[in-house]
Design goal:
The structure holds two protein chains of two kinds. Chain A is mostly beta strands. Chain A has no helices and eleven strands. Chain A is globular, with a radius of gyration of 13 Å. The model of chain A has no long low-confidence stretch (mean pLDDT about 95). In chain B, strands 2, 4, 5, 6, 9, 10 and 11 form a seven-stranded mixed β-sheet that branches. The N and C termini of chain B lie far apart (about 35 Å). Classes of the chains: A mainly beta, B mainly beta.
Chain lengths: ~110, ~120
């Protein structure tokens, strides 16, 4: 399987919460990142979490980490149409970031 | 403060040609990494440079090379271009070589089309 896996699509209504899930295989990954990519643009760093933490909250974003299961999630509260984008999960491996294929979030009004 | 800047933003090359892409990291950042993002996929790690030395290399052929200059800017070179090299090339900047514990910022990328 892939080193980092994500579901490909998520569709939500404006105002609802969105939860994007990610699994990774490398137990030595010490940091896990979430990036947002809008069409035709580069990657915007949203947040990251250290592997000895269970949760990190930053305004509308909440990251949950289950290190035992190597499962990471990103919750976006009160999702807005401007949150529509591709979201990438990435895990550290030595000097590199290993990315998933991205989850396309579609927000309808 | 300027973020990570990359040039050119878009370019078209023909098969067999060579291309050079440029990146300037965030002021104070000493490490630059390069990633390739093919349409519909996540970015793939190509190189990391720190203090002008290669500190990491991904699974890419020798046609890909890079270097870092004393001012910490970097160039990525790709020789003998193939159609499959068409992609968005992203540059990332961090304070040090270790990805752990550092925020990693990406530029807007250089879109390369090979025809």
């Amino acid at each position: 399987g892939e080193d980092v896996e994500q579901s490909l699509f998520l569709s939500v209504r404006e105002g609802d919460s969105s939860v994007i899930n990610c699994t990774y295989t490398d137990s030595s990954s010490t940091y896990l990142y979430w990036y947002k990519q809008e069409p035709g643009a580069g990657l915007q760093l949203l947040t990251y979490i250290f592997s000895n933490m269970d949760m990190k909250q930053d305004q509308r974003l909440t990251v949950l980490l289950n290190k035992k299961d190597k499962h990471l999630s990103l919750r976006i509260a009160d999702t807005q149409t401007g949150d529509s984008a591709i979201y990438f999960c990435a895990a550290t491996r030595r000097t590199a970031l290993i990315f998933g294929k991205g989850t396309t979030l579609s927000v309808s009004s | 403060d300027a973020g990570v800047t990359q040039s050119p933003t878009h370019l078209i090359k023909t098969r067999g040609q060579q291309v050079t892409l440029r990146c300037s990291p965030i002021s104070g950042h000493k490490s630059v990494s390069w990633y390739q993002q093919v349409l519909g996929q996540g970015p793939q790690f190509i190189f990391q440079y720190y203090e002008k030395e290669e500190r990491g290399r991904g699974n890419f052929p020798d046609r890909f090379s890079a270097r870092q200059f004393p001012n910490y800017s970097s160039e990525l070179n790709v020789n003998a271009l193939l159609l499959g090299d068409s992609a968005l090339y992203l540059c990332a900047s961090t304070l040090s070589t270790e990805t752990s514990g550092n925020t990693i910022y990406f530029g807007e990328g250089s879109w390369l089309t090979v025809v």
